[in-house]
Specification:
Keywords: Membrane, Transmembrane, Transmembrane helix. Pfam families: FKTN_N (PF19737). One of its GO terms (cellular component) is Golgi membrane. This protein is 32% helix and 29% strand. The protein is built from twelve helices and 21 strands. The longest helix has 32 residues. Strands 11, 12, 13, 14, 15, 16, 17, 20 and 21 form a nine-stranded mixed β-sheet that branches. Strands 1, 2, 3, 4, 5, 6, 7 and 10 form an eight-stranded mixed β-sheet that branches. It folds into two domains: 197 residues, 2-Layer Sandwich (Beta Polymerase, domain 2); 208 residues, Beta Polymerase, domain 2 (2-Layer Sandwich). Strand 8 and strand 9 form a beta hairpin. The protein binds 2-acetamido-2-deoxy-beta-D-glucopyranose. The site of 2-acetamido-2-deoxy-beta-D-glucopyranose has 4 residues, from helix 6.
Length: 458
């Protein structure tokens, strides 16, 4: 073998070894900076989504402490991760600098703000902008002022979005309403607003207005940061799942009342006061039993059509799903000061309870689910005849009637139309519950031998 070729080969070997060594070094540097101990300082370009989230959250929480924002973590995903077990685990460990709960990888995190205890101000906005946040404030009408007399309320802040490095913190303003609950408005962007500011479709708050009980809060440490959270996380999450709130249709109600002015006789006023007290007692009693209810029949029509009770209806009607029936409902109403007037049917079929307080009747109809339909029963005491009232399926929303928070079918128009037909918006003073409703059906007779048990009048 010629000598020249040997030298060339040697140099080639040395060169390739050097290149290989350089590769190893470079690879080690990269590897160490990604996953190994943090020997090398990270530049912002190397920040992971989780770092961004944590940094934004830290900056935001520091800012909110400085301005004493009455905040609590309301984000369903993050709260879902914070089970009680996980919390205990965290409390046992040190306040270590590690983001395991708050950095969910989602682009949005939401906080509730108790708006009656804090006024949004320019100083906060300025300080947030100084920290690098971009802000989007969503305002809307104050529904607490939007009554029948004052058509449009004052503008109030409903949502505040803070964006840092593409990560969004959503602050949901929760206002006290007269029915003793917290309310937040829908997130509606003005046409000239930046519709690309945030991934609005992914947000957990703002598609609709919402209603919540005032949550009991506790201060805790999550991922080394002090954060207030609802004490009963699962209770809060359960409320979140059915928080949708429907504002009364004040504009339509005004139009209706111009055509058909409200009865302002002393008897009508007296009925309204008594009906309000009765509804308050019913709502409180059923809340204590954790039994959801909604306003039904004439009471629902009154809310939907004129934002008040229909004075000539002379009673208050509510609905309860039979799956929520509890045997102690009767005792609870008796304890609350009502007297039982009648009990028709049985849990398996057409159950109906009637109470009376101060001369005003409270009818409780139990509703049965049957495929695409939901129905409740009626019984004529003197003849034993049975009736059936059929409704399309509906889900439950919150609403406010006479300063009481009540349930209503979310698909209210369908519900009202099923019951009262297309002419629901025309007052109908003569009404026969056995023949007038659009959705009534004859449903046979109770067997004579069971009357004593199934038709009880007190
Ligand atoms: C939390 O809320 C749920 C749902 O409302 C309820 O069933 C549960 O009893 C509550 N837990 C506590 C400790 O209050």
């Amino acid at each position: 073998m010629p000598r020249v070729n040997r030298t060339t080969l040697l140099w080639l070997l040395v060169a390739s070894s050097l290149i290989f060594l350089l590769f190893q070094l470079r690879y080690y540097r990269n590897y160490a900076s990604e996953t190994g101990p943090h020997i090398l300082r990270r530049t912002p370009g190397h920040m992971t989504a989780s770092d961004i989230q944590w940094q934004s959250m830290k900056t935001f929480l520091r800012l909110s402490r400085r301005f004493q924002l009455p905040l609590f973590l309301a984000d369903p995903t993050l709260l879902g991760l914070l089970t009680q077990d996980a919390l205990l685990e965290r409390e046992r460990s040190l306040r270590e600098a590690h983001c395991s709960f708050l950095c969910s990888g989602r682009a949005v995190a939401s906080f509730g703000l108790l708006a009656n205890a804090w006024t949004y101000n320019a100083a906060f906005r300025l300080a947030a902008e100084e920290k690098g946040f971009e802000l989007l404030e969503v305002r809307g009408e104050d529904p607490r002022l939007a009554s029948l007399d004052l058509l449009s309320g004052e503008d109030i802040p409903l949502h505040l979005l803070l964006r840092l490095h593409g990560y969004i913190i959503q602050v949901v303003f929760l206002y006290e309403r007269s029915g003793n609950y917290l309310w937040h408005g829908p997130l509606r962007l003005k046409t000239n607003a930046d519709h690309g500011f945030a991934p609005f479709a992914q947000m957990d708050f703002g598609r609709h207005a919402g209603a919540y009980d005032r949550p009991q809060l506790i201060l805790t440490v999550v991922d080394g940061l002090d954060i207030a959270i609802p004490l009963n996380i699962s209770g809060f999450l359960a409320q979140h799942r059915r928080a949708r709130f429907l504002e009364c249709r004040y504009r339509d109600a005004r139009r209706f009342l111009r055509l058909y002015p409200d009865d302002s006789s002393p008897e009508a006023l007296d009925f309204r006061n008594k009906a309000k007290s009765l509804l308050q007692v019913a709502a409180k009693t059923l809340a204590r039993l954790h039994v959801p209810f909604w306003i039904s029949s004439g009471t629902c029509l009154g809310w939907f059509r004129q934002c008040s009770f229909i004075t000539y209806s002379r009673d208050v009607d509510i609905g309860i799903f039979i799956s929520d029936y509890r045997p102690d409902i009767i005792a609870a109403f008796l304890d609350a000061g009502l007297s039982l007037k009648h009990k028709f049917g049985k849990v398996e079929d057409s159950l109906e309870l009637s109470f009376v307080m101060d001369g005003v009747k409270l009818d409780i109809f139990f509703f049965y689910e049957d495929g695409d339909l939901i129905w409740n029963g009626g019984t004529q005491a003197k003849s034993g005849r049975k009736f059936k009232y059929i409704f399309p399926r509906f889900s439950l929303c919150w609403a406010e009637l006479a300063e009481v928070r009540v349930g209503v079918p979310c698909e209210t128009l369908d519900y009202v139309m099923a019951n009262y037909g297309a002419a629901w918006d025309v007052p109908q003073r003569t009404w026969d519950w056995k023949s007038s409703p659009s959705n009534v059906q004859e449903n046979g007779m109770w067997p004579l031998a069971q009357w004593e048990e199934l038709i009880q009048v007190f």
